[in-house]
């Protein structure tokens, strides 16, 4: 991380932006002298080399180092890995059924809560939000990521016992980051992907599984992909080809369940039984 600096106005327009559901600006993507600049307004700038092999972070004045590290781990690093040709997705994953199962969904649909629920009940998590898949034989392996899970206060209260190790708080979110340890267990070795569950909206009254056709799974994987440059056609074509091969595997399902903490034990049992089938 470099020294703090003010976020000066740029003469060029961003080629892409991320916004929150409420319309608030979150990230601006720029091209600067052949490289990339990722701007998180009032928080930090990150300069990313054109090949994605180096990153420099510049916090805005007064922004603590922990906030910049948080942005790098959860936002910038997955984008950088995608630039390097990796398959990276917004998803959590846990070690289960002799391999790994992944949970994909929009923000707030329960990916981290599910992962934490398994991690405090005898299983181990592999990643909270940045799922990296590597081809292995005829399938894929889930690579472990940063050993921490971020949770909102209600999930923390329902799942985490007092005394669990936490990272320093950050300025832009009230989520707490829980570090892996005796209470929140982490798997630090790759595991073969056995199931990918795309989360529903929580309207189901019971735990339901629906097998996705390859075309449906392809749309879902693309929707949840990390991509640094959405206008780079060769990389987009390569990524689409990678995802199309992934979508052909018979491991993708729509998962829905009641979003109640008192139902999580039943949900875990149903997922385990389903993942062990076949």
Structure description:
It is built from six helices and 15 strands. The protein has helices at residues 65-83, 111-119, 153-159, 214-223, 233-247, 264-276, and strands spanning 16-19, 25-32, 35-40, 44-48, 55-59, 87-96, 99-104, 124-127, 130-136, 139-143, 148-151, 176-179, 191-199, 208-211, 252-256. With 278 residues, it is an alpha+beta fold. It folds into two domains: 16-63, no CATH class; 87-276, Rossmann fold, CATH 3.40.50. The strands form three sheets. Strands 1-2-3-4-5 form a five-stranded antiparallel β-sheet, with helices on one face. A five-stranded mixed beta barrel has the order 6-7-13-10-9. The radius of gyration is 19 Å and the shape is globular. The longest helix is centred in the N-terminal third of the chain and has 19 residues, at 65-83.
Order of helices and strands: EEEEEHEEHEEEEHEEEHHEH
CATH topology of the largest domain: Rossmann fold
Whole-number average pLDDT? 93
Overall geometry comes to globular
Give a quick rundown of the structure:
With 278 residues, the chain is an alpha+beta fold. 26% of the residues lie in helices and 31% in strands. The protein folds into two domains: 16-63, no CATH class; 87-276, Rossmann fold (3-Layer(aba) Sandwich), CATH 3.40.50.
Secondary structure elements and pairings:
Elements: E1 16-19, E2 25-32, E3 35-40, E4 44-48, E5 55-59, H1 65-83, E6 87-96, E7 99-104, H2 111-119, E8 124-127, E9 130-136, E10 139-143, E11 148-151, H3 153-159, E12 176-179, E13 191-199, E14 208-211, H4 214-223, H5 233-247, E15 252-256, H6 264-276
Parallel strand pairs: 7-13, 13-15
Antiparallel strand pairs: 1-2, 2-3, 3-4, 4-5, 6-7, 6-8, 6-9, 9-10, 10-13, 11-12, 14-15
Helix pairs in contact: 4-5
